[in-house]
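User: Hey, my collaborator sent me this sequence without any context and asked if I could get a structure. I don't really work with proteins. Can you help?
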Amino acid sequence: MTILKPQAGPQTKILQSTADIIIGGGAAGLGKTYALLLSAVRHIDNGHYRAVIFRKHRPQLTTAGGLVDAAKKLYIPLGARLKMTTLEFIFPSGAIIQFSSAHDRTEAMKFDGAEIPLVCFDELIHFEEEVFWYLLSRNRNTAGLKNQMICTTNPSPSSWLKGFISWWIDEDTGFPIQERACAKRYMVRQAGEIHWFDSKTEADEYALSVTPESMLKEKTQIESKSVTFIPGSISDNKILLSQSPEYASSLYALPAKERQRLLLGSWNAVDGDGMYFRPEWFELVRAAPAGGMSVRFWDRASTEGSGDYTVGVKMTRTVDGFFYIEDVVRVQKSPKGVEDAIVNTATQDGSLVTIGLELQPGSAGQAEKTYLAKALIGKKFKFVPASTNKVKRAEPFSAQVEAGNVKLVQGAWNQLFLDELNNFTGQSSEYHDDQVDAASGAFNMLSLKKPLPKLSFSDMSQRSKWK
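Assistant: No problem. I've predicted the 3D structure and written it out in structure-token form, which is a compact way to encode the shape of the chain:
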């Protein structure tokens, strides 16, 4: 007989928790993934049971030594057979544990209509927030099983998840508040806003009060969900420390910021820590004033669903010398998808916004220039020579931001934009810098222009006088 059991500590607490949403982690090496794999087998004797374990990208599941390989060691001795085409472990009862990627909402939509009693995310910080909320809506069943969502994570100060679990995290140190570890809170999410409560009774009463009449007539209502955060560290994983004692030393040898995150579990440690940009340097405004010169500069990538993002930053320079960042478009698409995003966004921006595109050196760049120029027929665009020095490109923009001359128009993209700029070092890191590159490109493109003429722009057609 095969017996599987968790280690004492966070692994056991994750499996014992009755919360609807369980978030476990906070440091590397505590055995989070094993707890996730183990939690999925609790109902494999029920033929109606289904669990789905997500990583953001499929290669993270199927690579040698990855999640599927780890699952084979646990599930095949329990009688499961692996259907490799769909990454499904099918048990004798008919129960299924599936592994899937969900790099964005479009991919997550393949589970539209599905009933999944157990939804698991491995490394939740890598997933987009809307993927999390969409798959929570699939966390349901008619087999009488408890619906749960179990997630593992390492700390990330730039992730949306930090705000979600902020009650369990010390605001000043970034470390978990031990007195709150494993404690349940209750939430109601209404129109994208989360309302938190200390008891289920309070949460249910609020949920009932905001449920539309049409739902009540159908005898349904908005639901409250219980949430818990279960922290831990490598010291909780006795098996790992006995088998690989050098792993703790490897974590200790990391640079200071990464060591604070991965060894000590701090959610505040960032690589850049405002080296070139600080959030407080940007003034948030409701809208940019009328008039001025506007550009949308694109920092392009061409890998669909992974790697760097293609980012288009719309920026306006006004007569009084201020720069307004009005909008950020951010996508991971194929070369054709990138082209479509650029053309469609240009159509939405209108004829008063000039498109900025970086021109790669050599014959490949010239061929790309010809190709994109054809796609942009009828639109204003300018090619800018590529710069390989990210810091040199960003420094003029950074100086104006620090001086208070760059303002941010309020939008849903603000927080991710500010987090990325705050983390920017100019060096390779786990953080993207595509928004930095696009914003710097837009700023530099506007700065090369001659000063704006002192005109009244009440008539928007006068913008055409800008050459």
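In plain terms: The chain has two domains: 10-249, 279-465. You can pass these tokens on to your collaborator as they are.
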